[in-house]
Write a structure and sequence with these properties.
There is one protein chain. By secondary structure, the protein is mostly helical. It is built from 18 helices and two strands. Helix 8 crosses helix 11. The longest helix has 27 residues. The radius of gyration is 22 Å and the shape is globular.
Amino acid sequence: MAALERESLIMPKLYVAVDAQGGRTVYRDRKRWWWLLSCVYPLLPFAGMAAQVATGREIALGLPLLISYGLMPLLDFFIGEDRNNPPEAVVARLEEDRYYRWLTWATVPLHFVALIGCAWWVATHSLSWWALLMFAYVAGTDSGLGINTGHELGHKRTVVEQWLARLVLAVPAYGHFTVEHGRGHHRSVSTPEDHASARMGESIYRFALRELPGGIRRVWRLESDRLAAQHRSAWSVRNTMLQSYAVTAALQLGLIYAFGWVMLPFLAVHNLVAWWQLTSANYVEHYGLLRDRLPNGSYEVPQPHHSWNTNHLVTNLATFHLQRHSDHHAYPSRRYQSLRHFENLPQLPSGYFGMFPLAYVPALWFRVMDPRLLALPHVDGDLDRVNIDPAHREAIRARHGKHGKHGKPNLEAASS
């Protein structure tokens, strides 16, 4: 056993487990160093600044958008998927390796560096109005990744990671996310009651109108109830949502003080775009998927087939494995390096950076995703097993069949 311990230390990419019968399981994480992409990706706006310096053209500030929504989907297409899973026997050792969590911790200050750097660039360069707005959009998409970092950290139960989640969520001004996601969305995911689960026939723009307001209302209720049980006011300093928003206020007021009123349009666009990034992710992650009702009226426990999954390698490496969303919702406490692929899951045809632009054109989205949704093994064309937008229910049933195979309307969606 001592020899195995020494081997693990000498070869840090190697994880070894020995079972009670002396069987030996060995796993090498070949993506170990590639996870650094998730850590440094928030610095992408600096590539736009460098491109403007190199070319002298303001349009070059948009280079990060070209990389994210052009190059990354192409790399996903040509490099393809990674369906490799760590053996369950070594998962405990893999999750104990602090290298992986250090990457998420190190990413937090880089989001602050990126936003402050973008603000400084806007304030110290005479940009055209369109270039300022474009670079604010770039900064917003980058800060939207901060929600992804907060997502990974917020699911962990250590005090350090909980506080780091609140800090990084201050950058995109989305301080309510950790409570909303963990205590709200995860409990009601893939049900008509969940405002963060998109319905079949619902465009992303219609979805956005209920997703963000619904999240804020739900968090305020959850935190108010929690604090009331402690005989505290909802406006207490212990309100985790307000803690994060206080950091947001200090950060953004500090930027206005340091760089002037030009920060007002910059931060307004930045914040809206950062929020839009999460809306985009929520939209593609559970589109049309529905958990079954149990005889007692509650919903079944979330299963891997209640989330859309994608194993595309490059964009997973840039998002801390967010796109292995099926395993995440079934086992939310798993760390990103341990998330697994399962066969016969709902699979997206591209990574998120390719799916987001598709979602922005509803006609194309419906054309690609609706047949894919109905062809899922657990759906098999049965509209009773689909979360349908009530506003489009009749049109969808007319197009795909008035009733599901069970011969009854989708009462869950109809009641929403």
